[in-house]
Amino acid sequence: MRLRRDPLPATALDATDRKILNALQAGFPISSRPFAEAGAALGIEEEDLIARILNMREIGAITRFGPFYDAAAMGGAFCLCAMEVPAARFDEVMTLVNAHPEVAHNYERNHRLNMWFVLAAVAPEGIEQVAREIEGETELCVLRFPKLEEFFVNFRVEL
């Protein structure tokens, strides 16, 4: 699956969508009906919240909806990776890369380094192992950009 990297039109998200994006980044209820609870806090119905999240995923406003696990805090590792993939092979290479369960997400960019993905492994040595496997399968170089320092951005959309 290719993820959108082009900006969305200003009208793609309404005020309610923007409220959802801001609110759900601060946490999500753990309950028997978390969408109902989160929707009530936002003043919308459970079904509307679910539909809006699905729509934002479909149009590329969000790339995923789910928990964020800190692999490093659990003894694992993350690494941002990039590849220069010939256009004629992009779909083939994307399929090979995405077949690895360690690939958290994969983006196409308009750049010489046109494929960017994140590897998440249960142990730091797993990053190197998977990167080498991908290089062997694709016969292309995987550039590795390990995390040196973590920053919390606290992203918010304008209402």
Please explain how this structure is put together.
The chain is built from five helices and four strands; from the N terminus they run αααβαββαβ. The protein is α+β, with helices and mostly antiparallel strands and 159 residues long. A hairpin with a 6-residue loop joins strand 2 (103-108) and strand 3 (115-121). The mean pLDDT is 90. The protein has helices spanning 15-24, 34-42, 46-59, 90-98, 124-138, and strands at residues 77-83, 103-108, 115-121, 143-146. It is globular, with a radius of gyration of 18 Å. The chain starts with 14 loop residues before the first helix and ends in a 13-residue tail after the last strand. Helix 2 (34-42) packs across helix 3 (46-59).
Brief overview, please?
This protein is α+β, with helices and mostly antiparallel strands.
| Cα end-to-end separation | 30 Å
Shape: globular
What is the strand tally?
A: 4
The proportion of residues in beta strands is 15-25%
State the helicity in percent bands. Answer: 25-40%
Low-confidence stretches: none
**Most strands sheet:** 4 strands, antiparallel
Mean pLDDT: 90
SSE ordering: HHHEHEEHE
Number of helices: 5
Rg computed from alpha carbons, rounded to a whole number of angstroms: 18 Å
Largest sheet: spatial strand order: 2-3-1-4
Give the helix/strand class: alpha+beta
Q: Secondary-structure map with pairings?
A:
Elements: H1 15-24, H2 34-42, H3 46-59, E1 77-83, H4 90-98, E2 103-108, E3 115-121, H5 124-138, E4 143-146
Antiparallel strand pairs: 1-3, 1-4, 2-3
Helix pairs in contact: 2-3
